[in-house]
Design a protein that fits this description.
- With 95 residues, this protein is α+β, with helices and mostly antiparallel strands.
- The protein has one domain.
- It is built from 2 helices and 6 strands.
- The longest helix has 9 residues.
- It is globular.
- The relative contact order is 0.24.
Length: 95
C-alpha cells in the first residue's frame, strides 16, 4: 500500500493522495491547504489501536480518512460525505 511520510510526531501526506480523494489537481490541493479550505485532524490510537493513527481531511462536503501505522503505511482509507455545518469555508480554485 501507499506510504505517508513521518516527520517526527507528524505526518506528511502527499498532495497526490488528497487530490485523488477529493477529485482535485495537486495544484488545487496545495492552494486549498494554504487557504485553510482543506483541514485535517490527527488522532493517536490507544488500547488495541496503539501504534495506529487516524488522519482525517475535510474539504467542502467530503471527508477522507486514513488509518496508518507507525511507519506511515496506509492500512485503510475511506471517503464519506459530511454535513455542511462541519465543512471549511469556500475553496481556492485554480486560476
Amino acid at each position: 500500500m501507499t506510504t505517508i511520510e513521518r516527520d517526527g510526531e507528524d505526518f506528511v501526506v502527499p498532495a497526490t493522495i488528497l487530490a485523488e480523494a477529493f477529485g482535485l489537481s495537486e495544484v488545487e490541493v496545495r492552494k486549498n491547504m494554504r487557504a485553510e479550505n482543506i483541514t485535517s485532524r490527527s488522532e493517536k490510537g490507544v488500547g488495541e489501536d496503539d501504534g495506529r493513527w487516524r488522519l482525517t481531511f475535510h474539504f467542502r462536503d467530503r471527508a477522507c480518512r486514513f488509518i496508518v501505522d507507525e511507519s506511515g503505511t496506509i492500512l485503510k482509507r475511506t471517503s464519506f460525505p459530511i454535513r455542511h455545518g462541519a465543512t471549511a469555508k469556500g475553496d481556492a480554485s485554480e486560476s
